[in-house]
Amino acid sequence: MASRVLLIDDDVRLPELLQSYLGQQGVTLATAPDGLKGLAALEQGAFDAVLLDVMMPGIDGLEVLKRIRLKSRVPVLMLTARGDETDRVVGLELGADDYIPKPFSPRELLARLKAVLRRAQPGSHSEKLAVGALVVDTASREVMQRDERIDLTGIEFDLLVALVRRAGRVIPRDALLSEAGRGDVVVSERTVDVHISHLRQKLKDDPPKLIKTVRGVGYVLAKD
């Protein structure tokens, strides 16, 4: 796993803890002590992923994530306070690829990092899924609708793939994240509703004709 990762965190002890462990796993870790320096590092060099703390002086991690997403689709793993679902939900809605609550073990972080990098890598072969005017390329992670590219966050893309693959069949809310390969992301069913709402907005599905709600159960993507 040869990767270059940027850690943006004001905890002075964390870089020392992670650099040794991740270095043994083939991960080169660069560090930035605050959001502005982290953004500057991203401008100056290429990274395979970003580890981003939420609570920092100056601009916080959520604002840093907003600015990253204006320019880049680099995978971002948020570091959040344990039990603070609000930060996790907002981070995922802003385009974070995953999160890990503090305190965490380096081994747990590595497992999360590997999963994020694996999802971000193009597949060995391109699989294109089409429903009506919607075309989803799972290798390049691109979505086209009537020749227009639709820009989705990582979790929005995975949810859409799950719906497209089971077009015409209802997927319960509590199973949708697992169907999307995101069973390790622990958020409420309300958060799933928020992601579906964002998907509908981006697909101009209002009133919903493509992604339909089955009241009390979940969602179904229309075949036609």
Quick structural gist:
The protein has eight helices and twelve strands.
Which secondary structure elements does this structure contain, and how are they paired or packed?
Layout: E1 3-8, H1 14-24, E2 27-32, H2 35-44, E3 49-53, H3 61-71, E4 76-81, H4 85-94, E5 98-102, H5 106-120, E6 128-131, E7 134-137, E8 142-145, E9 148-150, H6 154-165, E10 171-172, H7 173-179, H8 189-202, E11 211-214, E12 218-221
Parallel strand pairs: 1-2, 1-3, 3-4, 4-5
Antiparallel strand pairs: 6-7, 7-8, 8-9, 10-12, 11-12
Helix pairs in contact: 2-3, 3-4, 6-8
Helical residue percent?
40-55%
Mean pLDDT: 86
Overall 3D geometry? elongated
Overall number of domains: 2
Strand content: 15-25%
- Quick one: how many beta strands? 12
Largest sheet: 5 strands, parallel
Indicate the CATH class of the largest domain.
Alpha Beta
